[in-house]
Amino acid sequence: MATSKPRSKRADHILASPRATALRDCTCGELRAADAGREVSLCGWVNRQRDHGKIVFIDLRDRYGITQIVIDPDRLPKDSETLTKASEIRSEFTLLVRGVVAKRDPQTVNLNMETGEIEIIATDITLFNASKPVPFPITDTITSDESVRMKYRYLDIRRSAMRSRLELRHKIELYIRTYLDTRDFIEVETPILTKSTPEGARDYLVPSRVWPGQFYALPQAPQQFKQLLMVAGLDRYFQIARCFRDEDLRGDRQPEFTQLDLEMSFAAESDVMRLIETLLIEITQKFGNKKIQQIPFPHISFSDAMEQYGIDRPDLRFDLRLRSLGDLAQLGDFKVFKDAVNSGGMVKGLRLPGQAAMTRKEIDEVTEFARNLGAKGLISYAIQQDGAVKSPLTKAMTEPDLRKITDHMQGLPGDMIFFVADSEKVCNDVLWRLRIHMGEKLGLINHDEAAFCWVVDFPMFEIIEENGAQRYHAVHNPFSGVKHGHEQLFETDPLAAQARQYDIVMDGFEIGGGSIRIHKSETQKRVFQLLGLNDEQITEQFGHMLEAFDFGAPPHGGIALGIDRLVMLLAGAENIREVMAFPKNANAQDMLMRAPSLVDDVQLDELSLKVKLPQENSKK
RNA sequence: GGUGCCGUGGUGUAGCGGUCUAACAUACCCGCCUGUCACGUGGGUGAUCGGGGGUUCGAAUCCCCUCGGCACCGCCA
Fold this sequence. Notes:
By secondary structure, the chain is α+β, with helices and mostly antiparallel strands. Helices cover 28% and strands 23% of the residues. It binds one RNA strand through strand 1, strand 2, strand 3, helix 3 and strand 23.
């Protein structure tokens, strides 16, 4: 296209701008001083209109920028109505402006604008559409109530902050596709209408018209399909896939969300991890404005993460660590500690360097915070400059005992330690949140840093309580492979068996997880049995997988990355909704479309469905 | 299902027991203004304080219920 000769200035410009359309020659973000003299037409929304009585300025905005339009009576025909028209224009009107690009006088150049050296001397304005006063200003500085933003999401997205987050998301997804394509991964679409599976989250169900009383389920992840694609010999698959889970929402959880799902054959942990680590490094360096704390990403075992951070997704942006007191909790005669240990629990502490001078009031606030998280209380332990300890413990313990505790906790003069005495679960639950809370409060978190880590050595199973009975539950998913030599533990001590699982954590968020899978039907069957499925259930629910494995399934493994969470973190957004065009509110409703909604009885009849509302609290 | 925070003109906030017949900014409407760029300037419309009940001589302000939004727990990888 660069070879064809422009016939005129105007034609030249049409060729120059790839975004020219039948209605416009260029966008509101691209004209510069060099374009002076050109006759152009621009389309966009009125960002602001300034009426000076005789002369009128309009800042015209589109996705690409803002350009100032000048409506000057001295440069219009005498009988032109353009000035009158311009004076009646308001914010968010949609216009077509024809005019001539002019260099601004040096005094009137606006260095805050990318197009600030020029302006368009309008010759004609066409109004595509007027706008009612908008429910909130289309600016980035003013935040409006989120319910209003959601109801008028199409206006919210006009704001450059929203728009640039969606652009960022697009760029990242495009980068991922290219990255994987060059490594021979192919993107394969898998069904949205699929089969309900027992493990995992609650399914979204879709009734079948053709098969009355039967249901499809929306996929929680394309897990089984991607494994079947490996059996099919596709070798390397990926998909930027929509996933659905009918569970309650959080800031980082939506009922439908997007995963980068991938799987590769003849691969070990190191292959998947290297692939993803390189991808994450490139994406962060290219699109994020955060420095990666450590390359290569550190690996932390599940048990170390739980011991030192109280959670399997540690936020490594700051270096506070938890430490359990062990046998030292038995020293002296401190009832709270002894009771916790005697009832099978433990004592665990969080050391806050240099915080010994916290006031009574501050300590009470922290204690209240811990109580709200389920702790019975918090035992403070302040180490004075002279090494003496100020703590409720002093009444029940000797000075040598306290010294042992100080040493064990690696306490230094001036430090404050908070102890929780409870079950291991409560200790960890309270302390990991307290750790984050204090990290934030004390300004220890470096927000310009991205801290990635791999969490490995997960157990295969955990015990969960279901209807009063205890049973095994897969920590990751029932397809995760078991570490070499750990199969025997299935028969002796299943909880000790470790999975070939790896989670990728960024800034304390789990942004992905995967595993090398089971590819032997016998092993897969044994896992299902341990998870409490009988032979009939195994055949009914997973027979197709077992059968597939028996047709020469290759060793394979993969990972799924939470795209929404990743983009959220790279964009520095507060929650996942900020990086989704049309998210749902905390009650899983679409505030713009007003979904979910009632449907016609005719539709229900076709599906052989009858609605039975819960008594009393049926929501209209 | 539970806990917490929030709910004042279109929007963002102030007021937190009487002086509130509710203040400020912005938006909106009517004027004036030829160089602004959050234009300026004069005037004007607009909320009974999410809804209901209660306490009190008196409630936007205190209490209870309820609705809505958000956060968190349960739930969920």
